[in-house]
Amino acid sequence: MSDEQTIPADRRFIVDDIAAALGVSADELAIDTNLLDAGLDSVRIMSLVEKWRAAGHEQIDFATLASDPVLGSWLDALS
C-alpha cells in the first residue's frame, strides 16, 4: 500500500485477515482492490464475517460485504 492508502491501526486487522484468507501479503492489497477479483470466494467471506462478528462487529453481514467487495468499502463497513 502506498502512503496515501495507509490503513489506521485499529482497522489493520481487517486487511491482515483478508490477506490471510487470500494467501497474500497485506501489502499487496490496495484500498481499491476488488476482493472477489483478487480471489476471495463466498466461503471465505462467510468465514471472515463469522470471525469479525465474534470479535464484536455484529453489524457486518455477508450481503453487505458481497454487494460491495472493495477493500475500502469493507473498512468503512467495519468502522
Automatic annotation (TrEMBL):
Gene3D superfamilies to which the protein is assigned, alphabetical: ACP-like
Pfam families, per database record: PP-binding
Domain of life: Bacteria
Domain Carrier: 5-79
Protein name: Isochorismatase
Organism of provenance: Nocardia cyriacigeorgica
Source organism phylogeny: Bacteria, Bacillati, Actinomycetota, Actinomycetes, Mycobacteriales
